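Re-run requested by the PI after the first attempt was lost when the workstation crashed. Everything re-entered from the original request form. Ligand of interest: cytidine-5'-monophosphate.
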Amino acid sequence: MDRERTIRERLSLKNPVCFSLDLPDQDKGLALLEEIGPLVGMVKAGPVPFLSYGTPFIKTAERLGIPIFLDLKWHDIPNTVHDTIRHLPSSAIRMITIHALGGPSMIGAAKKACEELGDSRPVLVAVTALTHLTAEELLLIGLPPREVAVRRLGAMALESGADGLVMSPKELPLARSLWGKTPYLVTPGIRPKELSVANDDQSNAASPGDAFGMGADLLVVGRPILRAKDPARALGEILRELQG
Ligand code: C5P
């Protein structure tokens, strides 16, 4: 209960929307960071913007007081993961991702590094089985069927020190039934009912209201905002749906 409160209180986000700024172009990316960043709970930087313009991204977010979700999904030896987290380039980075497949020692090292950061400790969330993996691919890499893999990797990650997990909306009810309210659950694959996205690759998508209702703490939204004619308006519709 205390841990549950601490994670959410520590973050104290203005709303549960995390804008995924997946743009390679620095000018467009920073313009959207300025426009949309102050309106959302968090902004997510994955490898595409971070490797292209990571420093200006961080400086802009720091200036505007926008919490950053640094989504680089680390999966390496424990020492490297520890030192990477221990030397994060900014205290504006409030959430980070690792792969549960790195195992208990890597997750433990990540947790230790987070603790060593003290007050600026980021929330540590683990990816279980990437959603693009088919049953055949899971078998090829030695993993059981998806539901078993998510249960097993999720339990191991939480026992090893992760604060939460990343998962598709479809997996949220199972996660809440298995692990209760404590884990911080982050979900991509958000598709507002009235906003369609061309060439969509999110097969297990849910609307913002449905994902929130199924127990998500943070909704990661990229293309429904990025591809909208009016991104601020698209975000406004998502926030209205959540309020409803
Ligand atoms: O554009 P869209 O709303 O689908 O963006 C979703 C974001 O979440 C992207 O940054 C994508 O890399 C990330 N993601 C995902 N599916 C996962 C894990 C992360 O779409 N299983």
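Saved to the shared folder this time. Residues 191 and 207 are 5 Å apart (CA to CA).
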